[in-house]
Amino acid sequence: MIYITGDTHGDFSRIEKFCDEYSTTQADTMIILGDAGINYNLNERDIELKEELAQLPITLFCVHGNHEERPYLIDSYEEKIWNEELAYFEEKYPNILFAADGEIYDFEGKKSIVIGGAYSVDKHYRLRGNMPWLESDLTLIAGILKN
């Protein structure tokens, strides 16, 4: 079964409740649109979150948001074909997948193109607030503007 939800910002408590209530399995997929918060800190905190999420009885398919490092820029991620298209994953966490922008995935016979979240232009606001700033936010904006 395919399920869809919005941003989690690193808080997966509602996903955990959902899995319990609906007795999901890793054959089920939860599509997370936007900021999942899984690659937000790029430190031990992210690893702890991934360890917890790896225990969930569901496959998480994440479409990156605007304040999360792109998995293709993180050395521990690998590519694989999933639902007929390219996806990113880490071997230690096979139920946590990230979409590749522009791919057209097949979800139980329904095709969906993936285009990740808005790219952030709030660098100074984030830095003043002591929040992480990912250089890929700015790089991708520049790439979009050039094309």
TrEMBL record:
Classification via SUPFAM superfamilies: Metallo-dependent phosphatases
Residue ranges of every copy of the Calcineurin-like phosphoesterase domain listed in the record: 2-130
Leader sequence segment: none
UniProt-listed CDD domains: MPP_superfamily
One function term, GO molecular function aspect: hydrolase activity
Name listed for the protein in its UniProt record: Metallophosphoesterase
Organism: Proteinivorax hydrogeniformans
